[in-house]
């Protein structure tokens, strides 16, 4: 990987620091006006540890569509995570990091022909399907692919329902599709489902796993030997959320329906779980309008420099709810307030009503839990720039990750970090300390491929790293 001066390095900060301290440091510098993110990669590391602790049998395949930041992918790859890709573009982005194609599942049930050809050329042979047309397409374009049938398994409560678009009926359609796959001599290796993004109905996982077991039996009757169970996504990732209830349901269901881990490999496709709380967004109030009645201010409209065409597209596409938090401490009366984005579109409203103190132009409003389905869809509509992302890691996280490919010490910068962050600059000229040495990260090897657990998890192409200008 060759760095350029446009790339953002990971700034190593003191263990006592955190995203809010960094945000305050940047905001109070007096030279920053544009919106910006602080992305703490330590948050992802802690989420990975939580996953391994609570669902040790389930291997995470990160859903790239949730946040395809190169740094996000590099950190997850360094931890040993595999990837759920939905397009040839996502496949390429992951493989360019050195991730072996066997660590990717092409989990889009309806794929353009050119994307199937690309997957075949790159060796990404595990993919999902949920309809007859897809089977005939795969037979024509990639007959040696390893297929996973996706069934519909809607949660009663979910932030984003997916069943109306993907997933065949487990009782009626799935048996027919399996028979067709057998007649076409296609290799079906397992069952997948997705209960819906941001699941609020943990028992949905048990119902879906029970349906998957039924299809494992149906596949056996057709001469198949299913060995992959993909339990999809739906795992919450905001601060103060937990996967504890879901993990209890999943672990119990696996014990009841798939008790032998040697016979069935269980994977999942978490997205927001890993990244939602890792990103915190700082926005600046550039204008405001006080609404008077009876000679007094009754409500306030605040205009900030990011909106629904930028980071807050998640309000439209991900059904997100955001909470504005003033960076500056205020005392006194709270006013009914609305927060608006910077564009000329009247639909560009971030929050319709929130109780906020009376703030001044130039103050900052902070939004937490902004890592999922935000930046990948953001656009510079009306000429407003996308927020810069400042990436941080404390010293402990740096020691854990700095020697785990695709991360190297060149990804990190030490010394003078606060000044560079305040100014929003790149890291040219900083001295990097060379005499630090700590134990490297000890992470559980999550295996290698969906089929062969003896192959390497990564392949690497070393290139010369030029100077950072």
From TrEMBL:
It comes from the Eukaryota. Residues 42-276 form the Orn/DAP/Arg decarboxylase 2 N-terminal domain. Residues 36-371 form the Orn/DAP/Arg decarboxylase 2 C-terminal domain. Gene3D superfamilies: Alanine racemase, Lyase, Ornithine Decarboxylase, Chain A, domain 1. Pathway: Amine and polyamine biosynthesis; putrescine biosynthesis via L-ornithine pathway; putrescine from L-ornithine: step 1/1. Keywords: Lyase, Polyamine biosynthesis, Pyridoxal phosphate. The active site is at 344 (proton donor). GO terms for biological process: putrescine biosynthetic process from arginine, via ornithine. The modification N6-(pyridoxal phosphate)lysine is found at residue 65. Its cofactor is pyridoxal 5'-phosphate. GO terms for molecular function: ornithine decarboxylase activity. InterPro entries: Ala_racemase/Decarboxylase_C, De-COase2_C, De-COase2_N, De-COase2_pyr-phos_BS, Orn/DAP/Arg_de-COase, Orn_de-COase, PLP-binding_barrel. Its EC number is 4.1.1.17. Catalyzes the first and rate-limiting step of polyamine biosynthesis that converts ornithine into putrescine, which is the precursor for the polyamines, spermidine and spermine. Polyamines are essential for cell proliferation and are implicated in cellular processes, ranging from DNA replication to apoptosis. This is ornithine decarboxylase. It comes from Diploptera punctata.
């Amino acid at each position: 990987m060759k760095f350029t001066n446009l790339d953002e390095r990971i700034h190593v900060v003191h263990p006592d620091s955190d995203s809010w301290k960094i945000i305050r440091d940047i905001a109070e510098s007096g030279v920053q006006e544009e919106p910006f993110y602080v992305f703490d990669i330590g948050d992802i590391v802690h989420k990975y540890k939580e996953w391994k602790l609570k669902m040790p049998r389930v291997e995470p395949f990160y859903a790239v569509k949730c946040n395809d930041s190169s740094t996000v992918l590099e950190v997850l790859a360094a931890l040993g995570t595999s990837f759920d890709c939905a397009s040839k573009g996502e496949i390429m982005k992951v493989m360019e990091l050195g991730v072996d194609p066997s660590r990717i599942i092409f989990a889009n049930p309806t794929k353009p022909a050119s994307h199937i050809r690309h997957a075949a050329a790159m060796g990404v042979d595990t993919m999902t399907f949920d309809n007859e047309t897809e089977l005939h397409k795969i037979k024509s374009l990639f007959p040696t692919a390893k297929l996973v049938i996706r069934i519909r398994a809607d949660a009663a409560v979910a932030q984003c329902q997916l069943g109306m678009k993907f997933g065949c009926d487990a009782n009626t359609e799935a048996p027919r599709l399996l028979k067709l796959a057998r007649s076409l001599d296609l290799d079906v290796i397992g069952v997948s489902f997705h209960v819906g993004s941001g699941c609020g109905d943990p028992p949905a996982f048990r119902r879906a796993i029970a349906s998957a077991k039924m299809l494992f039996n149906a596949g056996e009757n057709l001469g198949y030997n299913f060995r992959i169970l993909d339990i999809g996504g739906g795992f919450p990732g905001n601060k103060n959320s937990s996967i504890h209830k879901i993990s209890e349901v999943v672990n119990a269901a696996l014990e009841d329906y798939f008790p032998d881990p040697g016979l069935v490999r269980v994977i999942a496709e978490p997205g927001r779980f890993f990244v939602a709380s890792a990103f915190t967004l700082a926005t600046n109030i550039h204008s405001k309008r006080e609404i008077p009645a009876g000679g007094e201010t009754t409500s306030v409209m605040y205009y900030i420099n990011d909106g629904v065409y930028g980071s807050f597209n998640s309000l439209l596409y991900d059904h997100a709810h955001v909470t504005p938090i003033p960076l500056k401490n205020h005392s006194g009366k709270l006013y009914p307030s609305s927060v608006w984005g910077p564009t000329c579109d009247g639909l560009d409203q971030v929050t319709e009503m929130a109780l906020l103190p009376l703030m001044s132009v130039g103050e900052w409003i902070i939004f937490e839990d902004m890592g999922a389905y935000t930046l990948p869809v953001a656009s510079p509509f009306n000429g407003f720039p996308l927020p810069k992302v400042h990436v941080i890691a404390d010293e402990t996280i740096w020691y854990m990750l700095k020697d785990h490919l695709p991360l190297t010490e060149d990804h990190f910068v030490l010394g003078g970090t606060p000044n560079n962050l305040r100014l929003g600059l790149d890291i040219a000229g900083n001295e990097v300390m060379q005499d630090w040495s700590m134990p490297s990260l000890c992470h559980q090897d999550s295996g290698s491929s969906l089929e062969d657990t003896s192959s390497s998890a990564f392949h690497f192409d070393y290139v010369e790293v030029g100077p950072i200008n």
